[in-house]
Automatic annotation (TrEMBL):
InterPro entries: CHK_kinase-like, EcKL, Kinase-like_dom_sf. Residues 111-273 form the CHK kinase-like domain. This is CHK kinase-like domain-containing protein. It comes from the Bacteria. It comes from Marinomonas ushuaiensis DSM 15871. Transmembrane segments: none annotated.
Amino acid sequence: MTPEIFIKRALNASLVARTETIQGLWSGYGEIIRFSVEGSDIAKSVVLKAIQFGQIQNHPRGWQSSFAHDRKVNSYKVEANWYQDWSSGCTENERLPKLLASFYQEDETYLLLEDLDSAGFGHRCDFLSVEESTVVINWLASFHAHFLQSEVRDDWPEGLWPRGTYWHLATRPDEWSSMPEGDLKESAESIDKSIDQACYQTLVHGDAKLANFCFGDDLTSVAAVDFQYVGRGIGVQDLAYFLGSCFSESELNEHLDYLLELYFSELSRCILATGESPDTAEAVAAEWHGLFSIAWADFHRFILGWSPTHKKNTLFSRKMTEQALSQLRGA
């Protein structure tokens, strides 16, 4: 089925026209396209995520393999499950595009989504000031509080990643093998276990970089996109990844304590708003704060295996990683 026919039927529209290719999907697995719509009461503009996964694609950094292909295919299935079965529970404080329709066949999936540009989230940012970042930090805190679990069932979160984030150790054996020998490589399992065995778990976005947030024109409202790696984790995994995507080393050195205070203050407020006790809010904040450097080191482990010359391999990241390793050693 062509995208135009699918959209026309899904929205009961008289005319559907492709207006813009927003971007290609990573490693050539499809594209994200904007369409204009006429004659529908549902929308005048929509975004289609057209996913094609019939064969192994070429990875831009040479990491193509059947294992990597299967991981990527599963990530799109997870995203479809997220939009179909989980996303409707989110509030305006965790704004994201609404799923309008979906279509599946053997080698292709269509996810028809609300056009966030038309909904007032048409601004994209390459960087934010510390104060401007508050809206994203608040989004993350609300999301993590919303899905907080103190007792995790074996089947939770059904249909999503049992361990969220795209750099999760068990899904990156080749990258781990490529790491230089040293304390971080040897400690990778201990770092992973520290995250996995945290008492308080939640859903993490799993790819919470600045580029995956869409802003209102005044930068006081935000919505998130790209939920391929949503799954179980701890909130500071998203927080560490977002901060690393948003701020320079000098900004992080100067403002990290304040940024952490912003997140944990809002997280506690949001946990209380769900009806949990002050003791629970305090316990979650204390546990996750203690795991922040561990979460940072977990991503740094991935970078050192995947692309050690990447700009994210910074002195600040190495410092945070050393803090985590010292913490594991009990120093």
